[in-house]
Recover the amino acids of this structure.
């Protein structure tokens, strides 16, 4: 069974903005069989934000990609 079927993505530690217009949050990859009381983390990205100029911008920290369909095949692009 694929790893992708056994993980869930959780947004946690959400903090309101303090000195700018962007708050911070953690993106966590966890096992689907865990619970909130006893989380099993696969990976965590802490202090993420939505400021595209920041080194903590969520897409910069985690990465982003998209898929297109060309010539009868899927092509994955990374930004």
């Amino acid at each position: 069974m694929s790893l992708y079927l056994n993980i869930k993505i959780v947004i946690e530690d959400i903090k309101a903005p303090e000195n700018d217009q962007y708050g911070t949050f953690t993106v966590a990859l966890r096992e689907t069989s865990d619970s909130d009381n006893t989380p099993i983390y696969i990976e965590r990205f802490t202090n993420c934000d939505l400021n595209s100029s920041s080194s903590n911008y969520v897409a910069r920290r985690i990465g982003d990609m998209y898929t297109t369909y060309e010539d009868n095949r899927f092509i994955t692009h990374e930004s």
User: Anything to note?
Assistant: The beta strands are 7-15, 24-31, 41-48, 65-70, 73-78.
